[in-house]
């Protein structure tokens, strides 16, 4: 099991617009295609103007397959064209669990 940790940094003052657009147009598509949303947050202290997504996958192969399906989805591509101007940056990390951790949401 792996978790993808994505950080999107918006231009200053754009976090609320980003979240509203995501909720209206991106959320349902990503949940349908990516599957296991572990968490979705915005930063309050530390690096500001950031939105953090956490998505779980069985392995990198499942992630690759689901991400390819997401990027092929016309509705998602339309959403990306709208959201991109709000973004100043993006980071992605792949997290692996510690040997003693078993997530409660694991399939």
TrEMBL record:
<feature type="domain" description="NIPSNAP">
    <location>
        <begin position="4"/>
        <end position="100"/>
    </location>
</feature>
<dbReference type="Pfam" id="PF07978">
    <property type="entry name" value="NIPSNAP"/>
</dbReference>
<dbReference type="InterPro" id="IPR011008">
    <property type="entry name" value="Dimeric_a/b-barrel"/>
</dbReference>
<protein>
    <submittedName>
        <fullName>NIPSNAP family containing protein</fullName>
    </submittedName>
</protein>
<comment type="similarity">
    <text>Belongs to the NipSnap family.</text>
</comment>
<dbReference type="InterPro" id="IPR051557">
    <property type="entry name" value="NipSnap_domain"/>
</dbReference>
<dbReference type="InterPro" id="IPR012577">
    <property type="entry name" value="NIPSNAP"/>
</dbReference>
């Amino acid at each position: 099991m792996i978790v993808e940790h994505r950080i999107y940094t918006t231009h200053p003052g754009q976090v609320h617009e980003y979240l509203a657009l995501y909720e209206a147009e991106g959320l349902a598509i990503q949940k349908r295609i990516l599957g296991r949303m572990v968490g979705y947050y915005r930063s309050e202290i530390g690096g500001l103007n950031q939105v953090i997504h956490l998505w779980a996958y069985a392995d990198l192969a499942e992630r690759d397959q689901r991400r390819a399906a997401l990027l092929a989805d016309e509705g998602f591509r339309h959403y990306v064209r709208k959201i991109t101007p709000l973004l100043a940056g993006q980071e992605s990390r792949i997290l692996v669990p510690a040997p003693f951790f078993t997530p409660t949401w694991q399939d």
